[in-house]
Fold this protein.
Amino acid sequence: MSFTTLGAMRSVRPRRTNLALLIALAIAFATGIGAVASGTSSGRWVVLTHGGAGVAVALLSPWKSRIIRRGLKRERRGRWASLALAAIVSFALFTGIGYASGLIMSIGGVPGMWLHVASALAAAPIIIWHVAARPARPRKTDMSRRALLRTGVLTASAAGIYVASNAIVQVAGLPGQDRRFSGSYETGSFDPESMPNTIWLNDKRPDVDPDSWRLHVVDRAGEYELSLEELGADQKQVRATLDCTSGWYATQDWTGVPVRTVIRSTGDARSLRVTSLTGYWVRFPVADLPHLLLATGVGGAPLSPGHGFPLRLVAPGRRGYWWIKWVRRIELETTPWWWQPPFPLT
């Protein structure tokens, strides 16, 4: 930390430290959600802001530690919850920095990205409790020239350290230099057998009988079914990158049927709902139809059960949880595509 930062922040009061830390944590959490959702390079700014907010949290830690030490000298209800919050946030910073640099890819066989996300989610309810129990209410003086100067110094320092840390990763040749803009590492590109069989949350791989399986298509012209044999009649190949939220990505050549070729009429539809045999579903905007592929194969071979046999959706530019496996139904709806949870709940 620079002497300028120390000088500008030496006299920061506990209330302002808590308020600044709360804002930094809120930005880190919000941009973390955005980073998970971002599938194209246009969303890079979200990932960069997330990293900068994390650095800001780290910069505020020395001041917060003083507040904690003072608080431990007094008997207060919820002190253990506060200590647990400090430990969880510290662990989130540790795993985030470790995974970003490539120095900590996993702990005990659990991917570092999963641990980072899990710790952030675990911290959220405790932060809400902490804010309710010990509020750091903003005041008019928080907008004073001196306060704004401190904020500017903190922001500039966080941004500078974040840029410098990325430069160090590059110069040192650490694994983190090969990350995608989303933070994911390449795993199994053009080698489907090496590509992980990641499943979203508690979804489970179903047993599928290819002879009895049918794709149910519901468009504005009505409903009909397609067998696996019928889907194999007129196939196209698309090269697309599957970027999983667990921290890996793979580019593959996918073979299948473009969604637009099985949709006979869109009419007044506003979205396409794609549903898996497991009940997992996601709703897409109709504008995405020309880009979606119903894949039956990858890398010149049929899909494996773990990769979605007999049919999975390929959604270029979307993160992995949009690439629905074991598709059984696609249905046009008049419901807006955004009328759904931010992330699938199953």
